[in-house]
């Protein structure tokens, strides 16, 4: 799917699109509030909430203690009582103290109460590596949460999708983990209309049509994957590029349709390889698309280590060259 660009739109970065979506929804829905560490007066560590405190006040843009467990508990409580809280985890590696409330309460609220209560909360999480930060600030831990029934797990890769998908996440009656690839927060600008028009969740976005090979990715790796597709085009290999965008629930039909056309698939993600979400996609292809495949599914991923600090960080992340090499291998097989 592709977002429609309005002629009166403004070019903004991904982080600005996040701020714009938050402001729009807070203006139009008084039940929406923002909470987290430094999100108020300071505007957030990445400036995602800059200006919201001055616009909406301390009752709706709440600076919390430096206590992720408390943030998660407050968020679940507010959501279960009719509010629509948008909490910030500040960094992906800070999520672990929140897991009890996310997994045991937020994700189970509808199930536990047989639909009498829901949990319309969003947890915004700056995600991934590539910004020269310590390891607790550079994790790609999305696969942990894709295993939890009752959660939506979303990861936009462009300003347009960040704006539209965040609006949908806030409006969703159930909990959404909204991972934000911080490496591309300010990497480029895109025209985005501040019109409140949401984009659908639970669908993959086909960013490039192709006939020879399917490249499946999400988050910050979309950039390298598109660059690899362009390089492969120069070799006569026509790649289809799919941005998964919503990891749970997975729109596997779009991936399967593409693989039925191309016969080959390379999955790219920056999380460690073992039990990364790419393994789930590969397993589904083995189960449901086996007879469409002309070659084994390839995975280009991070390594099974903690992300190394600074000098080796970019070596850890999948590169254009690694993606191209995997694609050539897939094309040569079968």
From TrEMBL:
* Organism for this UniProt entry: Cognatilysobacter lacus
Segments forming domain Transketolase-like pyrimidine-binding: 12-187
- Which PANTHER family does the protein's record reference? 2-OXOISOVALERATE DEHYDROGENASE SUBUNIT BETA, MITOCHONDRIAL, 2-OXOISOVALERATE DEHYDROGENASE SUBUNIT BETA-RELATED
**Protein name stated in the entry:** 2-oxoisovalerate dehydrogenase subunit beta
Needed cofactors, names only, are: thiamine diphosphate
Q: Which GO terms describe its biological process?
A: branched-chain amino acid catabolic process; response to nutrient
Query: What's in the keyword line of the UniProt record?
Result: Oxidoreductase, Thiamine pyrophosphate
The answer to whether keyword Oxidoreductase applies is yes
Renumbered to this chain, the signal peptide range is: none
EC number(s) in its UniProt entry?
1.2.4.4
